[in-house]
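Async update (no meeting this week)

Hi team, since we skipped the sync, here's where things stand on the single-chain job. The sequence we agreed to prioritize is pasted below, unchanged from the tracker. I ran it this morning and attached the output directly underneath so nobody has to dig for it. Comments welcome in thread, and please keep replies under the output.
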Amino acid sequence: MSVRVYVPTTLAGLAAFHAAGEVPAGTDHVEPEGDDEDSEYDALMTAAAASAELAPPDGRRVVLVAEVPEPGAAVPMRLVVSVHSDTEDRPAGADPEDDLAWFATQEIPDLIGGVGGG
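Output:
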C-alpha cells in the first residue's frame, strides 16, 4: 500500500532532488487527511503555502507529489507522479491561495532549466 505525499520545495530544490535522483529522507511533506479530492487539494495547498515560505520573495512555489510506501523515507524520483508549480515568478504579496499548474515528471528538466537560486 502506498501513501500520497506532497513535498514543498523551490525550483532550486527540485533541481537538487532531480540531480540526486531522490528526495532525501526526512524532507518535510504533507499527507492528505483522506482519500477524497478535497483532502488532496487541501494537502496540495498546505504544501504550496510551505513552499512559498521556502522560496525567495519573487520565486515560484513548487510541490512534488509522490506515491510512497513509507512517508518520511527517501523518495526516489521515479516515485514522483507529478509536479505542481507557479508558471512564472510570483511578485511579492501574491495571493498564497492561487492555484498551481500541473506538470508531468517528464517536464522537470524544462522546469529547472536555467535555475539559479529560485
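Quick observations from my side:
The mean pLDDT is 92.
The radius of gyration is 13 Å.
Reply here if anything looks off.
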